Amino acid sequence: MNENSKETAVPPVQNGVQASSLDACWIKSRHSNAEGNCVEVAPLVDGGIAMRNSRDPDGPALVYTAAEVAAFLAGAKDGEFDHLL
What we know:
By secondary structure, the protein is an alpha+beta fold.
């Protein structure tokens, strides 16, 4: 890579897996905008659920169990995270 190249090295993935390494069908909310600032989710064959940033589809994905995602969604619906906004 030379100094005129627009390519950059891929940073190491921390706290997750490389999204491009997952054989997954990614889904985003129908409420998402067209600018690509979205969280995408994908069901995995082992029952887990992966999440990634749509702006970086080859970047890191966080993988959770279905129970962890259910607990997070229940908390969000109950307003547990409203103070963060």
